[in-house]
Amino acid sequence: MEDVVPIAETRRKSNGPLPLIALLGLLLAMLGYAALSASLPAKTAPLTSFGLSVTHADTGLRLLWNPSAVALRGVTEAELTIADGEHRSQLLLSPGQIRSGNLFYAPFTGEVRFNLRAQGGNRVASETVLALDAKAGESTALRGAVTFPAAAWPDLMSNFAAAKPGHAASSRADH
Known about the structure:
Number of strands: 8
Shape: rod-shaped
Helix content: 25-40%
Largest sheet: 4 strands, antiparallel
Radius of gyration: 34 Å
Number of helices: 3
Strand order of the largest sheet: 1-2-5-8
Distance between the termini: 141 Å
Order of helices and strands: HEEEEHEEEEH
């Protein structure tokens, strides 16, 4: 007959509630992070751009923008600021001029900064581009001149016609 040897029961030694507390702490940290990140605004706003760029021409600079850009949708006026050395110009662009997508500028200096700012609804968008031109020092009678493509001319003429009566009235008052 075989001898039966009793097997001693071994009790597993417990670490107490420590693993359970660590697991609960980890779960709470994950839930807290998820709740906090869902309530915070995005760290970066989506980039709104006009696609502003400059090309060099023989007698000046052509400023280009994307008239279909999201930032220009629904915009009826835009402001273009030109900083050309000591010369500063601000132009209020009409809808036709905005739709044209470009203008030509004859610079005074070799460093010209264009800033296009548009406001529509509850949003404001602005973009700046710097143009450097080594040929800007050459003599030209057109320095500082801004011209738009022919498609924008009807808008320019209607703006001119609207301003003309007020101008005539003020000149009559001087006499």
